[in-house]
Design brief:
single chain, 188 residues, alpha+beta, 11 strands
Length: 188
């Protein structure tokens, strides 16, 4: 039906690595896969296998769950998009308790896969949208911190030098050229 690969972490794994909950739901217990370092697994590649045909109005959705947190939608694949590399933005453990069928808090991180109606899913680019939003917020915060170090106060107004944006942008560009990893910090 489907397979997954964790880039730089695993060989391709098929559906047999997952526990089947019912006809349309599967769970991968990350404790058995990587132990407590589940949050270091940042991406998953999910793909439909050639022998499986998903109806055109259905999608194979991927969710993640940290211990003590609810499931979080990460993305989906469809017949027209038979594979995807999805980011895994693990929530902080214990944010909200969501009780399982056994009335106990989940004790391990999980990746859930589910067959769902395509129309009921959020945009399949939801992860890309969140990445862009997170990156914009981090760039804005970087600019704010830079400007704050040059601020003066005049009553209820903050005063900054006229060339502050030019100076920040030049510093930002220079740092990105010197350190290729610098911009990756804004995308996480």
């Amino acid at each position: 039906m489907f397979g997954v690969v964790f880039p730089n972490r695993s060989f391709p794994m098929d559906i047999s690595a997952f526990s089947q909950i019912d006809t349309f739901h599967w769970i991968l217990d990350m404790n058995t896969f990587v132990g407590e370092e589940y949050d270091q697994v940042r991406e998953v590649c999910i793909f439909l296998l050639n022998s499986f045909t998903l109806p055109p109005d259905k999608a194979l959705s991927v969710y993640i769950q940290s211990p003590g947190s609810p499931f979080l939608f990460c993305g989906a694949i469809t017949v027209s998009r038979p594979s995807a590399v999805l980011s895994l933005p693990w929530p902080e453990p214990g944010g909200q308790l969501q009780l399982t069928a056994t009335n106990s808090a989940p004790t391990s991180a999980k990746i859930g896969v589910s067959v769902e109606d395509l129309a009921s899913l959020p945009s399949l680019d939801v992860v890309a949208e969140k990445k862009i939003q997170r990156m914009a917020m981090k760039v804005g915060e970087n600019l704010f911190n830079f400007m704050q170090s040059f601020c003066g106060v005049d009553g209820s107004r903050l005063i900054v030098p006229m060339d502050i944006l030019d100076r920040w942008f030049k510093k930002f560009q220079d740092r990105a050229k010197r350190d290729p990893e610098y911009l990756k910090g804004f995308a996480l």
